[in-house]
Design a protein that fits this description.
With 311 residues, the chain is an alpha/beta fold. The chain is 40% helix and 13% strand. It binds S-adenosylmethionine (SAM).
Length: 311
């Protein structure tokens, strides 16, 4: 299958990164490599990228796409949460900028064998970005107890009918395991009253929730953002694209925390916490895709870009 991923807010990201010829940049989520390729082009002839991705297939495809630039890129098949280790292995003292384009790629969504899409009927329930990981969507759907399932659907999917869906999943799997995306979609569909099905596909929120759980997308995101920012040179920028409100809330909160100076009780005569402001937030409100981009790439719909400068 061909790896097609239309990059989201490409121009906005390049501008946000304030690219310099010869700079060294970190791309936490290489994916289809469109952002990385653009960084490499615009920092020619000697700019470099260090990139991570959990997905071996994405990396194999990216290497083909980036074949003219392989001397200027180092790719690590690992979680961006291992940023500090990657930075050491790559031998970089400080990066000139970093990009995180969170979530799944179009390739992962469109590849039926990966089980990310509620549009495919017959895919196995997988949803792992890292195919060596031992927790798949099948495990979540078939092994989690009812209350844990309901919690995940409600919190990660913001699904109103989480309790209903969880109850029906548990009932269905008492007869036989739920093996395919189609079987899961059918259970979700009949758990939601008709009049609440007008806004998009009924399984969208539940699939998002299960995917977040499988890939532990929110766990440790704040710590990873802090590590990445602390690995930047002074004056460098970090640009983060999110695709749902929970991720965006974490980025917003983490930026706010890093921008805050001393948090001591105001009544104390001197600071004892020693907390120092580490960044300046450059986007008071997140940047969103233009009308033109939304038309050209409807998948960019929920994207939000936040940018900060390392002090
Ligand atoms: C939205 S895509 C990135 C697209 C990319 N910017 C491009 O230009 O094609 C997100 C990618 O990040 C990867 N990813 C998601 N979470 C990750 C993590 N914690 N560590 C490393 N890679 C991750 C996914 O496997 C996917 O390939």
């Amino acid at each position: 299958m061909q790896f097609v991923h239309i990059p989201v807010m490409l121009e906005e990201c390049m501008k946000a990164l304030d690219l310099k010829e010869g700079g060294v940049y970190f791309d936490a989520t290489l994916g289809g490599a469109s952002h990385t390729m653009e960084i490499l082009k615009r920092t020619s002839p000697s700019g470099k990228v260090v990139a991570t991705d959990l997905d071996e297939e994405a990396i194999a495809n990216a290497k083909v796409k980036l074949s003219d630039y392989l001397d200027r890129i180092k790719i690590f098949n690992t979680n961006y949460k291992n940023f500090n280790e990657v930075k050491n292995l790559a031998g970089i003292d400080g990066f000139d900028g970093a990009l995180m384009d969170l979530g799944v790629s179009s390739y992962q969504l469109d590849n039926r064998s990966r089980g990310f899409s509620y549009m495919a009927n017959d895919s196995v329930l997988d949803m792992r970005m890292n195919r060596n990981s031992d927790k798949s969507a099948w495990d979540v759907v078939n092994k989690y107890d009812k209350s844990k399932l309901a919690y995940i659907l409600s919190v990660y999917g913001e699904e109103k009918f989480a309790e209903n869906i969880a109850a029906n999943i548990v009932k269905a799997r008492q007869v036989k395991p739920i093996d395919t995306t189609g079987e899961l979609v059918e259970i979700i569909d009949r758990s939601i009253p008709f009049k609440f099905k007008q806004n998009g596909h009924p399984a969208k929120k539940s699939f998002q929730a299960i995917r977040i759980e499988v890939n532990e997308e929110l766990d440790g995101l704040d710590a990873a953002i802090k590590d990445i920012i602390r690995g930047l040179k002074k004056g460098s920028h970090v640009a983060i694209i999110t695709f749902h409100s929970l991720e965006d809330a974490i980025v917003k909160r983490t930026f706010k925390d890093l921008e805050t100076d001393c948090i001591c009780d105001k009544r104390l005569p001197i600071c004892v916490c020693n907390k120092k402001r580490e960044i300046k937030i450059l986007t008071k409100k997140p940047i969103e895709p233009s009308e033109e981009e939304l038309e050209r790439n409807p998948r960019s719909k929920s994207a939000k870009l936040r940018v900060a400068e390392k002090l």
